[in-house]
Structures are given as structure tokens and as C-alpha cells.
Design a protein that fits this description.
CATH topology of the domain at 2-175: Ribosomal Protein S5, domain 2
Distance between the termini: 67 Å
Bound molecules: adenosine-5'-triphosphate, magnesium ion, zinc ion
Helix content: 25-40%
Number of helices: 21
Radius of gyration: 28 Å
Strand content: 15-25%
Structural class: alpha/beta
CATH architecture of the domain at 2-175: 2-Layer Sandwich
Length: about 525
């Protein structure tokens, strides 16, 4: 007898339909699996055999042949177990093969027949819906993320027996439903900008970064609050749209980072990979292909603490995703594409000892120079804002000192500034939704400085030896400053502040006129 069960295979944050065709016949026990199944799938035979035994289905004296199609796509992971088991049950006539039609089955089997959660359920079901599949059964531990997909009737099951009886219509399976909001919910964060005392310049830079989508570099002594500030960037960004939440959740689901019971992620991610992270860990890779930190930080913040400690190759690998907003990871026969559009915040000390600019610094001037000279190249090119943090004043840290504005207030201004940018994009005036990604022609249209601003820019350019590229960055940031103010044009104060936010042009200009950064 023959039967076919349906399941889904992941490719990056996409999926494709996999049909599991099973043929059974009498003969000396054998279990063949064809169709580019990788080791993890071949191991499924052991789990499926054991789980079927729990249902008192013995495969002895049967020749089972399983063919998974499309045959030219690599099958990885353990999510095919349930479909495999049901295909076999269909072929053995323990389940009517007609009951398997049009239902997608996802789940790993435990040896005792329990259904274990699998990664990528959200993007897999989203694909199923696109392909016109309307019914699915998933493990109960994937319920929350499965419920985020609309347009597919998803039922949850705890055991293989549930699935069998459910398909036979002898046991009613529960539809997947959203659990009560886990954690704080959208807009409730564990940290808040109000906790940061002093550091007005850095708070302002963080707001500008959020408003225009500009990457930010912070240079400051130990304990100045660099990590604290970066951590609070996601709290001043606009709350995620449903579409963004689905994208971010899909990436975390594929990475296997959604805890059991976690539904749609409400908060923008914050990722802070250690500087020893591998290239694959940062931009994606491995087998099966998983998203890297730059994708896990999509829509949120990627924090590179101690930037100079990161290997050159590692930093170099970030260039392409930061340029394109997506990363393609290729392996033999497998090419996965992951979104990768985080805001990058980098931090470093001003010198090897950490205290340059204060009496505590013990570094000879040429060591400070060569330390800072290491700061160049591809990544810096993508960083529009560069600031220096002073040491926190003791007075600022006293509890009597006023706390700053809370995140919600700052976020309101960020939302306004982004609305102005979105309006220009949707009217077709510019081709980018955020000022940080405006092209040269767009810049000329919407960020051309008025006469006074032009004079400021020219004077600074001569004094600092600004490159044409740096010019563009100054204007992009100036445009964001105007948007934060609700101003239509770019004026002298905007340009002056934007120039001030390019620390490295200033600290490096006296070192070498040709060494302009960015
Ligand atoms: N501006 C600030 N307001 C309130 N507390 C602060 C501030 N800056 C630092 N702190 C306190 O000092 C601690 C260290 O700050 P943080 O780790 O952010 O510093 P850092 O600049 O990242 O230092 P390092 O260079 O050592 O990584 C924080 O946990 C916080 O308690
Ligand atoms: Mg730190
Ligand atoms: Zn020093």
C-alpha cells in the first residue's frame, strides 16, 4: 500500500512543501529513505520505529520505502518525524490515506511517542498559507508561535496518538491559540532611558540614531555608561509593526531561540555578541544554516562592545549585510536568505588604558594615535554618528541628581521624525524610508543646506579635510536633526550639530589630512 503525508522543510526564513511518500510491502524488515535526507532525518527512523511501537505498530516483516520530494532539496532537522510516522501508518492502512490529504504535519517524535517542538514553525506555516495549505498539526510546545499565523487552521497535539486519533476524527484536537501576553508586552521594557544620569550628549546621539536609522559609535572611558546606553536603544525605537514582529519572530524561531510558549516577539531585539564571535556566528552559517547575530538583531540593535577587539575578518563580514539589509548564506545545495537590518552601536575606549583625555591616562601619545588609527575601514564607513562620552560626573550619579527623560517620551519624538521620513518615501520624493539610507540624488533633493548652512559646511570641510563621502553623511544626519525639529529645510544649526557628531573626523584630522573617515 502507499500513502503520502505532507510536511514543510525550512530554507532560511522560507519553507517549502515536502511530501513524504511511503510504500509498504511484506518481506524481511527493511526501512529505506530516499530523497536527499541528511543524517538527522535518517536518524528519524529510530525515533519513528520506537514511537510506532507505543501504538503497537511493529515494522518487523515490513519493507518500508520512504521517498521525500522534491528530491533535489536537502532535508535537514527533525521536524519531519510526525509526517514520516503518519505516512507509514497510512501505508499500513492504520490511518485512511485520504485523511492525510491537505494537512501539514510538523514535529519531532520522542521515543515514547510524545511530540517535541521544532524550530521554524512560524515561517513554515506562513509558507504553507502562501501555498494554499489550510490545515496543520503542530506540537503543543509550538502552539504560541503557530497561533500567530492567520489563515491556517492549526491544531495542537501532545503525542503521536493524538495526531492519529485526530486525523481519524476520533479525538478532537485543540486549535492553537495565543497565550496571555508573556512578559511586559509591547512598550513595557525591563530598562528605561530615564535610568541614565547625565550623558546628555550621548542621550541626544541615541535619539538621533533611532530617529534616522543612523549607526552610532561611542568612545568613552570604562564605566561611562556605553553598555547601559546601547541597551536602551530598542526602548526608544517605534514599537514594532505586526509585520516587523512576524519577521523578527520568524528569525528567532529558525534559530531555535523561541522558548516553549513564546508567541510573537513584541520587543525589538538587542544582541551583543562577544568580540570572539565567529564569522558564521555573526552573519549566519552552520549546518543546517542558522541566522547569525546580525539577523537576530534585525529591527533592533546590534551592539559591538570593544569594537577594536573584533577580528578584521569578522568586521569585514558585516559590510555586505549592513549595505544590503539582507544576508545570503550559501552551502552546497542550500542557499538561505535572512533579513539583516539592525541599528549598529559600537563602543570602545578612547585609548589602550581607557582614560585618554583625563589625568589618569598613562598612554604615550603615539600609542593613542596608533590605537585610534586601527579604527578605519569598512565598518566605520557605515557609522554616521561618532561621539565621545565624558566620564560620569560623581554629581550626576548622586540620587539627588535629576533623572533624564523616560524612553516613552523620547520614543514619541522618534516616531514623529520617522513619520516625516516615511511621508517623503511614500510620496515618491525619496527612495528610502530612513535618512541613513538616502541615496545621493535623494540627498540633493531633500537635504540641501540653505546658504548659511552651506557656509558652515564649507568652513568645516576645509578645516577637517572632509571627503565627499563624509559630506553626505553630515547631510543625512542634518536631515534627521531637521526632522526631529519638524523643520522642512536643513539649516546652519543642523549642519553644525551634525558636524559635531563626527568625532573621528575631528580627532583624526590633525593626524593625517588624508585619513578622513567615512
Ligand atoms: N550615566 C550613567 N547613569 C547611571 N548609571 C551609570 C551611568 N554610567 C554608568 N553607570 C553605572 O555604571 C555601571 C557601568 O556602566 P556601563 O557598563 O554602561 O559602562 P561602560 O561605559 O559600558 O563601561 P566599560 O567600558 O567598562 O564597558 C552601570 O551598570 C551603572 O550602574
Ligand atoms: Mg561596557
Ligand atoms: Zn590611556
Amino acid at each position: 500500500m502507499q500513502a503520502t503525508a505532507l510536511t514543510l522543510g525550512l530554507v532560511g526564513v522560507d519553507a517549502h512543501l515536502v511530501s513524504v511518500e511511503v510504500d509498504s510491502g511484506r518481506g524481511p524488515s527493511a526501512f529505506h529513505l530516499v530523497g536527499l535526507a541528511e543524517a538527522a532525518v535518517r536518524e528519524a527512523r529510530v525515533r519513528v520505529r520506537a514511537a510506532l511501537k507505543q501504538l503497537e505498530v511493529e515494522l518487523d516483516e515490513h519493507v518500508i520505502t520512504v521517498s521525500m520530494s522534491p528530491a533535489d532539496v536537502r532535508k535537514t532537522g527533525s521536524a519531519f518525524d510526525v509526517a514520516l510516522a503518519l505516512g507509514i501508518l497510512g501505508a499500513l492502512d492504520r490511518v485512511d490515506p485520504a485523511n492525510l490529504a491537505g494537512v501539514v504535519l510538523l514535529g519531532e517524535l520522542g521515543l515514547g511517542g510524545q511530540l517535541r517542538p521544532v524550530r521554524g514553525v512560524l515561517p513554515a506555516l506562513a509558507t504553507a498559507r502562501r501555498l494554499g495549505v489550510t490545515r496543520a498539526i503542530v506540537p503543543v510546545d509550538n502552539e504560541a508561535e503557530a497561533s500567530a499565523v492567520t489563515g491556517v487552521d492549526v491544531l495542537v497535539a501532545s503525542t503521536l496518538e493524538d495526531v492519529v486519533l485526530g486525523l481519524r476524527g476520533e479525538r478532537a484536537l485543540r486549535p492553537a491559540k495565543m497565550p496571555g501576553a508573556s512578559g511586559g508586552g509591547a512598550g513595557c521594557f525591563a530598562v528605561d532611558l530615564a535610568e541614565i544620569r547625565g550623558q546628555h550628549g550621548a542621550r541626544r546621539a541615541l535619539e538621533i540614531a533611532a530617529a534616522g536609522g543612523h549607526n552610532l559609535l561611542m568612545m568613552g572611558p570604562p564605566g561611562a555608561g556605553k553598555t547601559m546606553l546601547a541597551r536602551r536603544l530598542p526602548t526608544i525605537l517605534p514599537l514594532m509593526t505586526q509585520e516587523e514582529a512576524l519577521e523578527v519572530t520568524a528569525i528567532h524561531s529558525v534559530a531555535g531561540l523561541l522558548g516553549a510558549g513564546a508567541g510573537l516577539l513584541a520587543d525589538r531585539p538587542f544582541r551583543a555578541p562577544h568580540h570572539t564571535v565567529s564569522v558564521a556566528g555573526l552573519v549566519g552559517g552552520g549546518s543546517p544554516v542558522r541566522p547569525g547575530e546580525v539577523s537576530l538583531a534585525h529591527c533592533g540593535c546590534l551592539f559591538l562592545d570593544e569594537l577594536l577587539e573584533f577580528g578584521r575578518a569578522t568586521v569585514e563580514a558585516l559590510r555586505q549585510p549592513l549595505e544590503d539589509g539582507v544576508i545570503a548564506v550559501s552551502r552546497a545545495r542550500e542557499r538561505a536568505v535572512f533579513p539583516a537590518r539592525p541599528l549598529v552601536v559600537a563602543a570602545l575606549n578612547p585609548c589602550p588604558c581607557g582614560y585618554a583625555g583625563t589625568l589618569r591616562c598613562t598612554c604615550p601619545p603615539d600609542r593613542v594615535r596608533s590605537y585610534r588609527q586601527r579604527l578605519s575601514g569598512p565598518l566605520l564607513d557605515r557609522i554616521d554618528l561618532q561621539i565621545a562620552l565624558p566620564p560620569v560626573e560623581i554629581a550626576d550619579l548622586s540620587f539627588a541628581a535629576a533623572t533624564g527623560e523616560p524612553s516613552a517620551v523620547v520614543r514619541e519624538r522618534v516616531v514623529q521624525a520617522r513619520a516625516a521620513q516615511a511621508a517623503r518615501a511614500s510620496s515618491g520624493e525619496v527612495g528610502a524610508r530612513l535618512n541613513a539610507t538616502l541615496g545621493a540624488a535623494d540627498l540633493a533633493r531633500v537635504a540641501s543646506p540653505d546658504a548659511a548652512a552651506e557656509r558652515v559646511l564649507r568652513t568645516a570641510a576645509e578645516a577637517l579635510g572632509l571627503s565627499a563621502r563624509a559630506f553626505g553623511k553630515v547631510l543625512r544626519v542634518a536631515r534627521t536633526l531637521a526632522d526631529l525639529e519638524g523643520a522642512t529645510g536643513v539649516g546652519a544649526p543642523h549642519v553644525a550639530e551634525a558636524l559635531h557628531l563626527r568625532l573621528l573626523d575631528r580627532v583624526r584630522a590633525p593626524v593625517a589630512q588624508s585619513a578622513t573617515v567615512g
